[in-house]
């Protein structure tokens, strides 16, 4: 996969008096968040496909001695190394988890849909940053 370089992202500060050439090719990195995102989406969609119409994908996180459960609605990423999870608590409060790819650890679980009267939605994705 070829990576395109946007030279606008690498503007030189005004103090630099001589131009520095940008490398024509950035080495690819198989550990980018976008690659983790693809794998996560595949696993989550496989899990979701096994659920009935009354349930959707939920996540349970344990951190700092607290357990948090939420309904997942979106998964995104910011390269090179951040994954984001957005959704709602059982009380319908919005939540967003931002995690480094090396820290990913969560439990997928089936949860009762918050709005069973609405058509079941697939988990979306976003590219951030």
Description:
- With 129 residues, the protein is mainly beta.
- It is built from one helix and six strands; from the N terminus they run αββββββ.
- Strands 1, 2, 3, 4, 5 and 6 form a six-stranded mixed sheet that branches.
- It starts with 32 loop residues before the first helix and ends with a strand.
Q: Report the portion of residues in β strands.
A: 35-45%
What characterizes the major β-sheet? Answer: 6 strands, mixed
- Mean pLDDT across every amino acid position: 80
Q: Which structural class is indicated by helix and strand composition?
A: mainly beta
* H-E order: HEEEEEE
Number of helices: 1
Low-confidence stretches: 12-24
Q: Whole-Å distance between the termini?
A: 20 Å
Q: How many beta-strand runs?
A: 6
Give the overall shape.
globular
Residues in helices, as a percent range: 10-25%
Which value, in Å, is the CA radius of gyration?
19 Å
């Amino acid at each position: 996969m070829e990576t395109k370089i946007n030279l606008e992202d690498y503007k030189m500060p005004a103090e630099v008096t001589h131009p520095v050439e940008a490398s024509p090719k950035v080495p690819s990195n198989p550990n980018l968040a976008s690659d983790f995102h693809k794998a996560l989406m595949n696993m989550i969609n496989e899990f979701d496909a096994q659920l009935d119409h009354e349930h959707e994908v939920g996540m349970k996180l344990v951190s700092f001695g607290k357990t948090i459960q939420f309904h997942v609605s979106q998964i995104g990423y910011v390269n090179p190394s951040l994954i984001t999870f957005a959704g709602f608590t059982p009380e319908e409060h919005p939540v967003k988890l931002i995690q480094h790819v090396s820290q990913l650890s969560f439990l997928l679980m089936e949860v009762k849909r918050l709005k069973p009267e609405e058509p079941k939605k697939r988990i979306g994705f976003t590219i951030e940053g």
